[in-house]
Amino acid sequence: MLESIENLKLESIELPSSFPVSSTFPPRHFSNGILQLIIDAFTEEMLREPEFRLTQSQYALLRQRMSSLYDHIRHHPALHQRYLWVGKGRPDIDPDIDASLQPVIQSRTSSKRKRYLTENSSDEIKSNPPKKAKASFPSEEICKTNRQWEQINSTHDFYDNEVEVIQDSVQQYVFSYRCVAETGPCIGISPLYESECTERYGWMYMYYRRVDDPYRTPQWGFVAAPHHCACKITPKYIPDS
């Protein structure tokens, strides 16, 4: 029993599927110690169960390891990744739109200032007439891109080793950017250049197994994930006339 406790890996502890693993997790929960208190209370409740027949040294060791879980979670590289989601299903949020960053202007504006703005709105319009809008043209992507949450099952790690992303009890989703027409020509490029839309990969900190590992040991690390669709251009060869 003691040996199994000593070999306990914090990475193998399952967090609830609702535990946020994105940048939207409020950092104040770490600063005021709420999580530490929750973990301590859970540990005490767990160790009081009659199924846990531990010696005094085993009890102390397990309690010590569980108390370090707070700092392990707090400093874990995967926790604040905006484009990684772990859960039972595909999320329906857009990680590029952070609602928490939108200022709540009305709640911060006093009633006195509201009256001032109302009373002086007509004078402000007279003294600052609206400027004539400039002509604008709709923007268009050079390479059309599909943005979506996607399960990455097979990829490679930072050292180019083939890996399998763990998708067992909960699924890991990456917000990917893929070319609509990979290897197709880019839009709006001068005819003096050959252009091609190509997918580029970035790095995401995920939970995986290396394919060449005989023990298939789960581990955290950086793996390749679709990051953006880029336009690759090369000058055309124009022979001298």
Automatic annotation (TrEMBL):
Which InterPro entries does the UniProt entry name for this protein? Cystine-knot_cytokine
Enumerate the residue ranges of region (Disordered).
Answer: 108-137
Organism's domain of life?
Eukaryota
Question: What name goes with this protein?
Answer: Uncharacterized protein
What species does this protein belong to? Trichonephila inaurata madagascariensis
Name the gene. Answer: X975_20414
